[in-house]
């Protein structure tokens, strides 16, 4: 769709049934807006024409733009003007119709045809389908790679349009390589198309497997054919399993185990643990926290807080989380906040002797507090430095996860060793986080 046309020329092509490809979506757009070409070329009076054009713009905005969620400040409009000498060559006589897109936030408008390729395709398709639907009841729509030039979010809008506007009325079959054009809630609709002739050793294929095949069994598909489905499923899992309306970002799985274990213990004692409204999201290290927060923070309906280790060398990274306005300052918590501002990991929320007991029992050693170097202050670093000079038996490497797992499996036998000061530190952290919850 070019988004602009000479009205007289367009009407002649309609009369003589000689429409060009760009005419179909433009006519659909005009029809969707409730305009009549005869009426707008002979309106009788200017006020009538202005009212019709304004009504058309409002109607089009209400019908189409709900399916373009990337920018809520857009609205559609039409303009009818006499041809000018320097207009496009085919529009230099008579009356021209111009489609425009207004941005109400920036107070500017641009010609519909000059928008991005994806935007023009999207509205061309919606307008084309509207015209097709008005003229035909019995339709099967076959679409090849729809939404190819659309942003991932706009592809989601297109899927929603398919679901709400097309599928209730017509059969729809489309091909895609994009995981964002796969509805992960309706895998039953999907058919996998593959050609094993392009796979390794195609000469050994039996005759029945030669050529392009459409299959329904996932187990029969080669990895390349499954990639869009894996991408769609992975994206869906990331949005539902690890992310919730209230997401608490922590560094690793050991943090998650400690927090869940101590929270459950506090609740069993009749105290407040961490609210179940928090979805705890381990991101795999402190260096990934800001990236992860940036990615999920783009979803404006999420409430995000972080609870992370604190080292002086990472102070700038931590401050950047709120200085760059990724988060509010009170949503960036470190374990040092509950340990008098010292450098601290989650393991420092426990007494050193208790954490060392977890290490000894899990790794089958008998290290004493006096055996550990006195610096640095963090217990994890002291233990790591010790094992660097006194390796664990059989080449086993010390890691953060195993003591956390040991505590989670043996909390009942260790409960009496968790003194009030240790539990109070966790309680203080959970209380601070629970105050950040939003409904």
Compact overview of the structure:
With 439 residues, the protein is α/β, with parallel strands linked by helices.
Detailed description of the structure:
It contains 15 helices and twelve strands. The chain is elongated, with a radius of gyration of 31 Å. 41% of the residues lie in helices and 14% in strands. It folds into three domains: 4-134, no CATH class; 136-238, no CATH class; 243-439, no CATH class. It has helices at 7-15, 23-32, 37-41, 46-64, 117-135, 152-166, 223-240, 253-268, 289-297, 315-323, 352-363, 379-389, 401-409, 411-414, 420-434; strands at residues 4-6, 74-82, 95-103, 108-111, 140-144, 171-175, 192-195, 212-215, 246-250, 279-282, 303-308, 332-334. The protein has 439 residues and is an alpha/beta fold. Strand 11 (303-308), helix 10 (315-323) and strand 12 (332-334) form a beta-alpha-beta unit.
From the structure above, extract its key features.
about 450 residues; alpha/beta; four-stranded antiparallel beta sheet; four-stranded parallel beta sheet; elongated
